[in-house]
Amino acid sequence: MRNSVAYFICIPFFLLIAFGCGNSKNTQSVNKRGYELLESGVLDGAGEEGFGQEYIAVENMDQLNDVLKRMNSVNEEISSLDIPADKTYFEEKMILFIFDEVRDERGYDLEISKTYSTPDHMHVDVQVIKEVDDAPTVVSQYYKVIEMEKSDKSLIVTFL
Questions:
Q1: Most exposed residue of 52, 64, 66, 149, measured as fewest CB within 10 angstroms of its CB?
Q2: pTM (2 d.p.)
Q3: Which residues of the chain, if any, have pLDDT below 50?
């Protein structure tokens, strides 16, 4: 009697663990963050590139080339991004350039703290982090470049 009760309790528990865990692996997304980091860096043109604390959503190759041209106008080849030249890339993906404000010193970074979707919007929360207190006094501007799935939803980027 005790053995049948033990089997009755243990077998469903074992099946739940075995099959439940196996299924969760199949449903996990490749990238839980919602984006892929393509590049992170610093512009040293003291703001001459013309970017403020802003983001630029790029949805075609012409827009991409325009942003890269501005970034590289004052700096050495700071960004090139190896993006496929075929038009199908931008049918599925969007590139988001995120620029911090121009600062009088180094030691800062941008962190994509959260990406999420609501019924009408895609949200990207960006946190400005001071990593080094005694950083060199060099006018610079930090940036991140991320790739996201394209969506018909409007994009909201919030600097925290």
A1: 52
A2: 0.75
A3: 5-8, 10-31
